[in-house]
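Notes to self, PorV/PorQ family protein:
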Amino acid sequence: MMHFSRYAVLSALLFGLSLGQQAKAQSTTPKYSNEFLNIGVGGRALGMGNVQVSLASDATAGYWNPAGLTRQKSKYDAVLMHSELFSGIVKNDYAAFSMPLDEQSVIGASLVRLGVDDIADTRNLVNEYGQIDYGRITYFSIADYAMLLSYARKIGSVEGLSVGANAKIIYRNVGDYANAWGFGIDAGVQYNHAGWQLGLMARDITTTYNAWSINADKFRQTLVPGEAMPKGGPEVTLPRFILGAARLIKLPGEFTALPAVDLEMTTDGQRNTLISSSAVSIDPRAGIEIGYNNLVYLRGGVGNFQKIKSFRSTTQEDWHAQPSLGVGVALSGLRLDLALSRLAVENTGGSASQTNSVIVSLGYGFK
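result:
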């Protein structure tokens, strides 16, 4: 345990140093940069409200916490996911694969794409004769891509302790109008002892830089009089830290319960979260997974707590949260997970409309 204490102290020092540096930089960096990488992947995780930093133990750990790759049960593991957000408008796709290098270390690769496709460009809908010509409509996509290359290793001197890191390459594209390339580093730790599962994930720990390139000729055609041309250049993503804890509880019969919580801490300025300050904003999440005989799972979660102004009053603000539900089946190495995330949005009439997101993921572990 002495070795683990040293790791904990070192992590705390690095965490405090990073917060101090980021507090100075907040005024010059944007919030929500590369936010597509914080939506989440995998039906299990999204069904539990994105609580996964201490739990991830398959190929999805390359995304959630690369240290968890050392806990995968099979020699090779692969995951595919398709998610439709905002009632199908936004497509979120994901693929991952992981395998061991030796008895102590594991490598993995993950691909993420979030995009809106087939956006109609109707600027040339009317031809030179003043007539509508539908054949002049063109279509384009806005999409964000990321590739994560992961490495994880068990710390031999401390049983249950693993560390991992990601090198990620980012490509963001806005049709023919603009694109950006970016690079960043993530780091994670997992520790399992006496039934407890603990995790710490530091995303963009070195800060992530996107270099934007603007197609001035294309943009110029879309500008209204007096509107300024967008500028290219670097976009900086500041670190965020996610601390997670979970515990497996055996219930009567073949049932188990796995409650878990995550605390996500952002350092890019004050956000609309449950705990909010100019230095750090903290967004708590909670989830639970009820399993039967390691075969069937029922999941639920809640997170994304935000204070939203009521349309009925100009001064009243109410707290809202985003719940999620999910089910999973695991059989002979095959895992099928479904999740549904529902967000209620109050409209001007005082009633609530529903925006549903459907997630389907398929995993397979072999050998």
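- The helical segments are 2-25, 43-47, 61-64, 216-220.
- Residues 2-25 form the longest helix (24 residues).
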